[in-house]
Structure formats: structure tokens, C-alpha cells
Design brief:
Helix 7 runs parallel beside helix 8, helix 9 (299-311) packs antiparallel against helix 10 and helix 10 (315-329) crosses helix 11. The longest helix is centred in the first third of the chain and has 19 residues, at 22-40. The chain is globular, with a radius of gyration of 20 Å. The chain is built from eleven helices and twelve strands. Helix content is 39%, strand content 19%. The chain is of the alpha/beta class and 359 residues long. 47% of the residues are buried.
Length: 359
């Protein structure tokens, strides 16, 4: 089955609320998607799966053995959040998220971050920020190669191998260049080739090779430490930033924090070829400390759903949703308390739906 973007017909969405506030925020995302479906005559079929840390506690597995085969037939996957006290993070990640990303070749993790009206940032100039972090999502530093030796002895050691392939680096860099072509035509590539002697010089070489295909895009290679500092000091200068799995992971959380709140940070795990379903999720995590209280910010989940619509071939609908989101953030009464407002999760969602009908 092809999962290429399409303009019409019923589109099948696998919904995985996961843990904690994932249930609350995905409920709002579904309501916004349904409002969009009514307005634009779209058709979505949803199937919800209970794959989560709770399922792990009950059965010993985050998802069933045939989980990947089950998901394969869907057009897209909408994920809430994964993680819960008592279940180690490596169990929840390697039991659900990472297998999905790798089996479905979701090699492009795309995380936009921008200044939003009504979202105060601790960083001067963040209101002008409008960038996208593109993270390599299936290889790099997050490999399974390595091990522990001499456990429990004074000379105990751990070895973790990074894996960078020409094919893997080329395709993520090419995706980032293509994205930059549709924006301000500036690409910053994160590196650390002055300290990491093999993988990062290789990364730089491949970046420069791919750059020859995109003479209309300005390229800058920047060491990750200097780049992190520059994101804080002058966030508006960046357009598209591409990084390895580790560097992209760190940078995308940094840019989300610079924007003012992880509660407004979306992400997409893309298979750009369309052969497999892509997965969309808010960045914020399951937030066990506020789970079930109705105070979680639904904006990141709604923005992730808008990114899903864009990937499925509905960019105008996605842009309409984002206009409603930005309008909802402009007033304290329709912002959640993490942004200084008074709205509950449900009230914030209702405001987005109402504004969607007006803007």
C-alpha cells in the first residue's frame, strides 16, 4: 500500500494516545481534525490502540508482536505521549517509538519552532524566530551497536558505536535542503568535526556533496556548541537546521524552549518516500505530574495534527488550523496555565475549534 500524500478519499489514522496527558491532548487534536473535515469535506477513519506503559505493566510489552504489521495499513499515525514512572525510558522508547520509526523508515524528524503571540519566551528576540530543525531519525548516535563489559568490577566499561552511512546522511540532508528551498533558502548543518574525528568529518563531506545539488540555498556548517549558543543569542537568524540523531534531538528541544514552552512544540516522523505511514506527535512527553488534571496544553498536539494534514496533501487546511491556534494564543482566557492563561485543556481546544470556524 502506498502512503503518498493524497487529496481525496477516506484516510485511515492510527491513534495511539499512549500515557499521561497524551489522552487529553489527542482528544483535542481529534476534535480539531473533525472540525477541519466538516469544513473541507474530508474523511478520516480512526482506530485507537492502547499501546503504552500501562500495557507494558499489564502484559510485559508496549505493543503486541504484530503491532508493526497492524500499523502498516494506515495512512498516518497520531501519537500522544509515551512514558510513566516505574517503566524505564529505554523500555518505552525501544518498545514502541523507535521500532515504529525504524520499521517505517521515518528517517526525517521535523520539528518547527517559532515565536507565537501570547507565548512569552525567556529569550530576547524569540518572537521573530521561525525555524525548522530536521533531525536524522534512524541511525547516527542512537545505534544498538556496543555493550557493557566487566560489569560490577572496578574496570567496568561501556562502548556505544555511532553509525553514519552515506545513504542515511545524504537523504536527511537532501530533505533539509529541499525544505529550505521552500522557505528562506538558508541551511545550517550542525557538526562537531573539530572534536569527533571520524563520523563528523564524514558528515561534513556528505553535506558539502549534497549542497552542490542546491546552489540556490546558502549553507553554513556550524559546530554544535557554537550553534546552541547562537540559537539562544540570535534565534531569528536561522531558517532550517539539520543535525544528526543526537544533535538534532538536543537542538529541537532547545528551540522549543526558546519559543517559550514545550507545550507548543510539534513534531513529525516522516518517511518522505510515502512507502510507509508517517507518525506525528507533540514533543512534550507524558507529563505524569499533571496527568488527568485537565490542564495540559493541547497546542503541540493540534500543531502535530496540522503537520499530518500537510503531509497527507492538505496544506491549506493545515494553514487554516494554525491561524486558529495562533488566534487562540492571543488571549489569556483561551491559553492554558503554562502560558499564563486560565483555560483548561478542553476549553483551549473548544476555543481553537470555534476560531477555526471564524478565521
Amino acid at each position: 500500500m502506498s502512503h503518498s500524500p493524497q487529496q481525496s478519499g477516506r484516510q485511515r489514522i492510527a491513534v495511539i494516545p499512549g500515557d499521561g496527558i497524551g489522552h487529553d491532548v489527542l482528544m483535542v487534536a481529534r476534535e480539531v481534525l473533525e472540525a477541519a473535515a466538516r469544513r473541507y469535506d474530508l474523511s478520516f477513519d480512526y482506530d485507537t490502540f492502547d499501546w503504552s506503559c500501562q500495557r507494558y505493566a499489564d502484559t510485559g510489552a508496549m505493543m503486541p508482536e504484530d503491532g508493526l504489521d497492524t500499523l502498516r495499513g494506515y495512512d498516518s499515525i497520531l501519537l500522544g505521549a509515551v512514558g510513566w514512572p516505574g517503566v524505564p525510558d529505554h523500555v518505552s522508547l525501544w518498545g514502541l517509538l523507535i521500532p515504529i520509526r525504524r520499521a517505517f523508515r521515518q528517517y526525517a524528524n521535523v520539528r518547527p519552532a517559532r515565536g507565537l503571540a501570547g507565548v512569552d519566551s525567556p529569550v530576547r528576540g524569540a518572537e521573530k524566530m521561525d525555524l525548522v530543525v530536521v533531525r536524522e531519525n534512524v541511525e547516527g548516535e542512537y545505534s544498538e551497536i556496543g555493550g557493557r563489559f566487566n560489569r560490577g568490577l572496578p574496570e567496568e566499561m561501556a562502548v556505544q558505536e555511532s553509525v553514519f552511512t552515506r545513504a542515511g546522511v545524504s537523504r536527511i540532508v537532501r530533505h533539509a535542503f529541499t525544505l529550505a528551498q521552500g522557505r528562506r533558502r538558508i541551511l545550517t548543518a550542525a557538526t562537531k568535526s573539530n572534536g569527533i574525528v571520524h563520523t563528523m568529518p564524514f558528515w561534513d563531506e556528505v553535506v558539502r556533496d549534497v549542497a552542490e545539488e542546491f546552489p540556490d540555498v546558502e549553507l553554513e556548517l556550524m559546530h554544535i556548541d557554537a550553534l546552541s549558543a547562537r540559537v539562544v543569542l540570535d534565534p531569528s537568524r536561522f531558517d532550517v537546521i539539520v543535525g544528526s540523531n543526537l544533535f538534532g534531538d538536543i537542538l529541537s528541544d532547545l528551540t522549543a524552549a526558546v519559543s517559550g514552552s514545550l507545550g507548543v512544540a510539534p513534531s513529525a516522523n516522516l518517511d518522505p518516500s510515502g512507502e510507509f505511514p508517517s507518525m506525528f506527535e507533540p514533543v512534550h512527553g507524558s507529563a505524569p505530574d499533571i496527568a488527568g488534571q485537565g490542564i495540559a496544553n493541547p497546542v503541540a498536539a493540534v500543531w502535530s495534527a496540522a503537520m499530518m494534514l500537510e503531509h497527507l496533501g492538505h496544506p491549506d487546511v493545515a494553514a487554516h488550523i494554525m491561524r486558529a491556534v495562533e488566534a487562540s494564543l492571543a488571549e489569556p482566557a483561551t491559553r492554558t496555565r503554562d502560558l499564563g492563561g486560565t483555560a483548561t485543556t478542553e476549553e483551549a481546544g473548544a476555543a481553537i475549534v470555534e476560531l477555526f470556524e471564524k478565521v
